[in-house]
Amino acid sequence: MTIHVTSPLQYNLLALVAGASKFAMEAGRDHGGRLHVAMLSSSGIGHLTPLAELARRLALRHGVSVTLMVSAADSSSPFYSTLVDSLPPGVSAVALPESALSGPASAVSMTINVSLPAVRRVLEGLNQSITGERLAALIVDFFGTDVFEVEADVGVPSFLFFPSNLFLLSLSLHLPVMHDAMPQLRDPVELPGCLPLFFNDLPEVVRSRGTEGYEILLRHVRRYEKAEGILVNSFRAMEAEAATIFSERNPGWPPVYLVGPLVPEEPPRDTSSPSLCLEWLDEQPNGSVLYICLGSLGVLSDEQVKEMAFGLEESGQSFLWVLGGLVTEDEDPVGCLPPGFLERTKGAGRVLTSWAPQLRILRHRAVGGFLTHCGWNSVQECVVQGRVPMIAWPLYAEQSMNALILVERLGVAIRTEGQGEDGVVRREAISAAVVELMKGERGRAARERVRALHAAAEEGASSEVLADVVAAWKSKLN
């Protein structure tokens, strides 16, 4: 069930609360008054996807009813209906009012701020209507801490959902101290249990003191200590050293729970999208195709797109390349390719200019490697569904930190070399990296390591951790 709110100024909060409350009462009757949890996602499908998987697991594995509050921007996304349709009974989605704010920092963080009245009414309605149990917890993602001020008013403990890894969480928790104590960050930044972090590997927002984005980030991370606990989309084998440090409980920090990798066991089916790329993969030999996807937000220069194309062609490697998200909106993705490239490579590869079913591609037997921007969701999906080695090509946000984990700590990825002063990686370096990953010794070793990491992710430790969290919620309500 999805409840939509259509206007930031003229929306019917009573209808919103009534709809959520009706679901809560039905959940209480149908499931004997089981626990109910509210979740709040800030703007961005990359934030919503793992949070929705957490909701799914709470409902299916632990008998918890969930109300998932989603930003209006996400609810209008073409991916949203597919995601919501895949949610099980016991999970309800509520679309919050649309924000009139603009700009990257505002879009992610301030959307929730202007939605606080709606969030408060939803929580109050749920708290009053659930039969047999009180609302057990509110889970907000890492840009949703403005909602913490609602916690005391409605009597619901707040938990932080951190969709990235312990490396970034450690940087976030240490950032207020570093900000107050240092006029500028040390280079490298050394965090307990983590790799040394050089200035250029820091997220751009952390490098940009004094900007609006930095101030918003700092405001949020200062509030992290107010959470009852932090649920992290990672697992011990992925970050063993950092996990050990966090298990020792730093005074003043909330307890940290590793509940990842939050990747669906079965990818949701989108019957509205063509699967021609999957049909093409069916015709390819096992492990023969390099899958290339650098996310939907990063942008490559025309010259870099051309160099990547030439590098792929020179490697002689079969490939499936999702190109649509790499150029600006007013550019034709195919127009950025070298003349004749598609014709020359039509027997070896396919280029997609729109959405691709990534989970189904990664798990396909024909895929043998993944050139990735190192977004944390993509990394987790590769480990869980793909079990293939990676070429790390970080573009923005914390992706350089993720690449350090993959390349330096885990050895499940390699990086391209030969970047020029203009920032462009040349075709020779790209070709060499592709050949090494798919046919070389480093690629073979990385493939073995990622399979071992996959096995560790399946061992069930994260499921036990989530069971402990649910048990703690129950004990506080009894």
Automatic annotation (TrEMBL):
Coiled coil: none annotated. It comes from the Eukaryota. The keyword Transferase applies. Pfam families: UDPGT. InterPro entries: UDP_glucos_trans (IPR002213). Keywords: Glycosyltransferase, Transferase. GO terms for molecular function: UDP-glycosyltransferase activity. The keyword Transferase applies. Belongs to the UDP-glycosyltransferase family. This is Glycosyltransferase.
